[in-house]
């Protein structure tokens, strides 16, 4: 048993090293991906401009700065791109190679994702710091809430991964599963809090939006980071995140299992 | 000399007209194989363009009007944005991605060897016709916004709107070509078309909302506002002809730059195929 665990550990370490090397080799491409996620920073410029005349809802100008810089940084930690790789591999038969390896393709994708995180953060942190210096400081959360934030980030990362895998697995049955993902992404940009804090939506609508998985995957960790979610609200949010992770995780697992069974390995 | 040159140019133009038509027809036929794509990408793309207005409406909800743009004027702006993003995702984005794949794999050789201008071939090599649904939806939004906002559109306003819209489209293409040229140098730049897509989303906001530095950036470097905000203002009769001329000049400059960059890039292109 421990031998198998040791072997798995070595395999994981090897994949990590390869993925890290890949991430470094294509650093311009990585920088481009980081740039796509700078989007909250332009939202920051827009909203802080609008808030110049007075607070909007319960957000004054400095609040918008804190919110969107946090959104930008936290998006780097939770980013995933498995759906593109997975659907491509299913379509062109690249999955065959992965299935032959002594580890689950799912684990492979997860490690590949994690391995790119250090580079992403190294590219994103300077941008975040520059914006903070230009626009005013950010209050650091207390150690206790940092632990909660870590947990919440891990859940958000898992949620994103599960969504990516679930939608990517649809490629086992339909050819254009990435089109469905674009729809998800469109909803994500509006409903997750990347372009506007979800608490600013009109009363009634806001409650609905904040219960959706989009908010769980970005908006809530951001509110936790800037100290807007405390006490019962924090517990509630974490529970909601866990619930969504469980829902999408099991969906992804079911789709993956059924998909592999239906998979015919076209291509190579 | 000039008579002979123009006599030669007319069949040349016809040739390119036929070439573009043939390329579009071919990619339409390819595209029609993916019927699910039609429903998901076309109709839901339209839906998404409309949902994307949400942050703007949140702002209007709290502030009454955003820098002089009321609810219905914002609908007109969203319509302009939807038309442009529809054209981008239908025509330019697929062609850029396909051409970048050609560069990455070295199959650009086969494109360059053909007896026609390489840039024209590259810019027409793929086409996603279902996204044209978004263009139609955008037109409906513009008309509805003008109607419900009780805006009287004058003939000059319409003309100015069309002129700025055309300038915006040219600027978009020029920017796309520059991105394509960049991918000769750094491979794996497909991500750049995503950057463009994400950036285009800011075209939803009225120009006045942007801080001055960003407004300059989005007018002259990445001409987003030329494509969306200014045509909407022209339709609403709030744009002077001087500004229209300025915007046209920006687009023309970008086009010339793009063409020069393309010629340079192709000259430096060393085939990567086996």
From TrEMBL, chain A:
It comes from Nannocystis pusilla. Keywords: Membrane, Transmembrane, Transmembrane helix. The keyword Membrane applies. Signal peptide: none annotated. PANTHER family: SLR1174 PROTEIN (PTHR36832:SF1), SLR1174 PROTEIN-RELATED (PTHR36832). It comes from the Bacteria. Pfam families: ABC2_membrane_6. This is ABC-2 family transporter protein. The chain crosses the membrane at residues 30-52, 64-86, 107-140, 146-173, 185-204, 238-256.
TrEMBL record, chain B:
It comes from the Bacteria. Signal peptide: none annotated. The chain crosses the membrane at residues 36-60, 72-92, 119-147, 159-184, 205-227, 239-262. The keyword Flavoprotein does not apply. The keyword Iron-sulfur does not apply. Pfam families: ABC2_membrane_6 (PF06182). Keywords: Membrane, Transmembrane, Transmembrane helix. InterPro entries: ABC-2_transporter-like. This is ABC-2 family transporter protein. It comes from Nannocystis pusilla.
């Amino acid at each position: 048993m421990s031998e198998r665990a040791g072997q798995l550990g070595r395999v994981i370490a090897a994949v990590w090293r390869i993925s890290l090397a890949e991430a470094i080799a294509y650093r311009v491409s990585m920088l481009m991906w980081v740039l796509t996620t700078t989007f909250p920073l332009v939202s920051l410029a827009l909203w802080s401009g609008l808030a110049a005349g007075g607070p909007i809802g319960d957000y004054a100008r400095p609040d918008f700065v804190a919110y969107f810089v946090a959104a930008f940084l936290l998006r780097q930690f939770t980013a995933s791109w498995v759906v593109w790789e997975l659907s491509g591999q299913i379509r062109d038969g690249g999955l065959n190679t992965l299935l032959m390896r002594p580890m689950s393709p799912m684990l492979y994708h997860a490690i590949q994702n994690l391995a790119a995180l250090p580079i992403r953060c190294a590219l994103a942190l300077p941008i975040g710091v520059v914006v903070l210096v230009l626009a005013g400081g950010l209050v650091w959360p207390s150690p206790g809430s940092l632990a909660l934030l870590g947990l919440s980030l891990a859940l958000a990362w898992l949620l994103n991964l599960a969504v990516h895998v679930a939608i990517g697995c649809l490629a086992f049955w339909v050819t254009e599963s990435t089109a469905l993902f674009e729809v998800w992404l469109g909803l994500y940009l509006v409903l997750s809090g990347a372009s506007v804090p979800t608490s600013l939506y009109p009363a009634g609508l806001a409650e609905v939006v904040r219960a959706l998985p989009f908010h769980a995957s970005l908006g809530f960790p951001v509110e936790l980071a800037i100290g807007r979610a405390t006490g019962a609200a924090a517990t509630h949010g974490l529970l909601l995140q866990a619930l969504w992770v469980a829902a999408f995780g099991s969906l992804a697992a079911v789709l993956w299992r059924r998909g592999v069974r239906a998979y015919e390995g076209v291509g190579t | 000399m000039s008579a002979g040159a123009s006599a030669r140019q007319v069949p040349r133009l016809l040739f390119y007209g036929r070439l573009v038509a043939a390329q579009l027809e071919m990619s339409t036929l390819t595209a029609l194989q993916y019927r699910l794509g039609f429903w998901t990408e076309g109709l839901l793309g339209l839906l998404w363009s409309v949902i994307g207005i949400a942050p703007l409406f949140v702002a209007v909800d709290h502030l009454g009007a955003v820098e002089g743009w009321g609810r219905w004027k914002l609908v007109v702006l969203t319509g302009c944005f939807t038309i442009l993003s529809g054209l981008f995702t239908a025509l330019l984005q697929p062609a850029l991605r396909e051409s970048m794949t050609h560069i990455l794999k070295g199959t650009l050789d086969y494109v360059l060897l053909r007896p026609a201008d390489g840039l024209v071939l590259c810019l027409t090599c793929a086409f996603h016709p279902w996204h044209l649904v978004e263009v139609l939806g955008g037109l409906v939004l513009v008309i509805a916004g003008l109607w419900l906002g009780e805006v009287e559109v004058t003939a000059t306003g319409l003309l100015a709107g069309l002129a700025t819209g055309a300038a915006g489209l040219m600027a978009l293409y020029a920017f796309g070509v520059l991105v394509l040229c960049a991918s000769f140098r750094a491979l794996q730049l497909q991500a750049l078309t995503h950057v463009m897509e994400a950036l285009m989303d800011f075209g939803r906001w009225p120009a006045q909302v942007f801080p001055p530095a960003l407004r300059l950036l989005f007018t002259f470097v990445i001409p987003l506002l030329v494509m969306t905000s200014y045509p909407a203002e022209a339709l609403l009769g709030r744009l002077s002809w001087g500004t229209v001329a300025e915007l046209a000049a920006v687009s023309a400059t970008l086009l010339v730059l793009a063409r020069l960059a393309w010629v340079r890039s192709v000259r430096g292109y060393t085939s990567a195929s086996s």
